[in-house]
Amino acid sequence: TTLLYTIKFEVMPQYKVNVKWGKEKFSDVECNTDEPPMVFKSALYSLTGVVPERMKVMVKGAAIGDNDWSNIKALKNNITMMMMGSAVELPPEPADKTQFIEDMSESQVNQASDYPPGLVNMGNTCYMAATLQCLRTVPELKSKIQDSSVEFSRQTLSGSHGVTAAIKQLYKEMEATCEPVTPFIMVKVLHMTIPRFAEKGEHGGFQQQDANECWTEVMRMLAECLSGEGSTDQESVRKSFIEQYFGGESTTVLKCSESESEPEAQSVEKWTQLRCHINTDVRYMQLGLTLGLKENIEKTSPTLGRNAVYVKTSHVNRLPAYLTINFIRFFYKEKEHINAKILKDIKFPMEYDAYELCSPQLKEKLDPARDRFEALRQKKIEKELSGKDIKNTKETSTKKEVKYESSCSFPDDLGSSNSGYYELQAVLTHQGRSSSSGHYVAWVKHKEDNWIKCDDDKLSIVKEEDILKLSGGGDWHVAYTLLYGPKRLEVLEDESPSEEAVKPPETEPEKME
After folding, report:
1. Are the C-beta atoms of 251 and 314 separated by less than 8 Å?
2. Strands 323-327 and 274-276: what pairing?
3. I want to staple 160 with a disulfide (CB 3.0 to 4.6 A). Which of 3, 178, 224, 325 is the partner?
4. Pick the catalytic residue: 126, 214, 276, 358?
5. 203 has catalytic annotation
6. Using one digit for the tens of pLDDT, what is the confidence trace for 52-106?
7. Per annotation, catalytic residue among 161, 439, 446, 477
8. Residue 105 and residue 97: Cα distance in Å, rounded?
9. Rounded to whole angstroms, how far apart are CA atoms 117 and 107?
10. Active site residue 276
11. Cα-flanking dihedrals φ and ψ of residue 266, to 5°?
12. pTM attached to this predicted model
C-alpha cells in the first residue's frame, strides 16, 4: 500500500516592502496583512508625519483601505508602494525635558502626581498617622485648623490646645513638602495629653493603640478648640466646628417591656460617629446601622423597683455634612485579655443614602434637595437619549469644568446635610487579629476613581475596586472606620442654579485643591 502525503505550504502574511513618498524612499517597512491596514498606516505615520486620515497608499493602481486588504492582490516582498499626503507640522520641542517616572525620586513622584506626603512611623504610630491622613481629606476642617489662632506656648504643650496646635503644625509641614514628614511634635504632644498612648511594651517600644480611639479623642480635642461658624441669628448655631460638620443628633425613646404602665422616656443624643453592629445576620453596612436603631438594654425600673428590659428606639433628626461610621469589629476576650477582631465580610457602598435612618420630620426636610437630585438624574437621561452629550463631546476636545451648588447644608444649619446623600472619601483599615496589635492604614480618595493608599510613609495609587475589597473576610486590610463626605448637586449648563454655582471643594489631601 502506498501512502501519499500532501504537504501544504502556507504563505506567511508578513512582508517587507518599499514605500516611496515624494523624493523620499523607505526600505524594508514591515507589512502584516493579518493586522488591519491602519496598523501599517500608523507605522508610515511614524516615518513621515502624515496622519492616516490624510494618507493614500497605492499598490499597482489599487488603494489600501482602512479596514481590510481585500482589494490588494499582488503583495510580495520588496514591492514598491506609492504614498501621497502632507505631513502635519510637528509641535515644538518642550522647554522642559521629559522626566520618566522610573528616574524620579519618591518625593518627585509625589509632587508630579499630587500625592500627599507620607508620615514616618515612629514605632507603632500608624494608628495616629492613618487617623490624621483621613481627617485631612476634609477641606473645611483643614482650613479651619490652619486659620485658627491656636499656637504653641509653654503652658499649652499638652491638652486640647496642644493637640490642635500640633495638628496645625503637622498639616503646615505636609503642605510645604512632598517628602515624608516625621511627626515628632505630634507624637510627643499626643503622648503627653493621653498617657495610655505612650505605654511601652516589654521590649521598650511603644505599644499599638486603637485607631478609632485616637480618632475619637482627636475629634473631642478639636471640638474644644475650634469654634463654630455662621451668623448668631441662625436657629441651630452650634458651639463647636466639629459639632457643626461631624455631629449628628438622634431622638431616643425608652420603653419598659415589662411594665405597660411606665411611661416612655424621650431624650436627644448627640454623636460624631454612627456604629455598624456586626452579628451572624449582618452582611451589609446598612443592616448593621439599622440594628443600632433598635436594641434591648437593661436598667433599673422606677415603677418595678428592680432591673428590667427596655426597648431603646432611635431615629436620626440631624445629619452632618461629614458622616463617620465605625464598624464594631473588636470585642474583649476575658480569657486572653485582648480585644479580639471580627473578620466577617461586611459590604459598604461608595455612595451612601442615610435616608432610612432618619426620623419622619428630618425626611420631610431632606425631600426638596433629594427631589433636585432626582430631577438632575432625569435631565441627564433625557440628554443621553437626545444625543446632546455625544454632540458636545465631538464639538470640544477639552473636558468642561463641572459646577455644583455652593452648599449642601440647610440655610439655618451650617455643616448639616440637606439631602442625606454621601460619597466615600476616606477609609481607615486594620490588618491583624487584635486592636492592640497589627497595622493601620489610611486610604483616601484622590481624583475620579483613583485612591491613595497611605501606609505610613509609603504611598501608592489604587482603584475603586481595591477599596471595595476592604470589606473583610480574611487577614487582608479590613475597613474599621469610614468617612463619607457630602454628595454635591451638579448644575447643568442649560439651567440657572438655585444658589451660586461653584467648583466643588477638593477632598484630596496635599496640593489637590
Report:
1. yes
2. parallel
3. 224
4. 126
5. no
6. 888 899 988 888 888 888 888 778 888 999 999 887 665 555 555 544 444 555 5
7. 439
8. 16
9. 8
10. no
11. -110, 145
12. 0.73
